[in-house]
């Protein structure tokens, strides 16, 4: 997934004030203090939230008894009404936070197209590879936007984010700026969401990582199998729908300029 330092908008219920921090490529919203940390003299007025209409629903919320699902629904409403600033994509939701990503670089998108063009002719009738589709699990409080998914046309005929259990394969293309989002966060999220096969393609160093077989590792839901190889090796993905291959030798690598775009 193409990313910069994530824009994080926490969804916890006890936040009273907020401020903006401006690193080179992103804006981060985070609480300045919480109810438990704020001690005000009787004559001191309560701090005012920032004059930011898009953030008001989160910043003004006073109900400290919200469930994870309620927080997620609130963040979904915020996301649905949010217009990304130039250069940013629509955000994802994980761990009670809204995380916004930088728009992808051209070689990122070229990699996605090269992969989908290889996959589509191999897939059974009614199954296709789609790019950048909302996928959510309300019980887990997560909404992700994989770079590529393999699912049925029927599953895509929905007004809501896609059910992750309808997905056979998710593919992420690593950005230069935030590889942890794909290697760490989504490696944790995708098996928990029930996606049985997960492929990470990394144009930074010309490698791929394939993970499959959902089970338990250290008591947590996780992929039990992992294969990490270089681009010169063919990816072979064996699923209940068939076996598919992806030739990686001609996939583009990021340029030096791409690598500086963080």
From TrEMBL:
InterPro entries: Nuclease_put_TT1808, Restrct_endonuc-II-like, Uma2. Residues 92-208 form the Putative restriction endonuclease domain. Transmembrane segments: none annotated. It holds the Pfam family Uma2. Residues 1-28 are annotated as: Disordered. This is Putative restriction endonuclease domain-containing protein. It comes from Streptomyces graminofaciens.
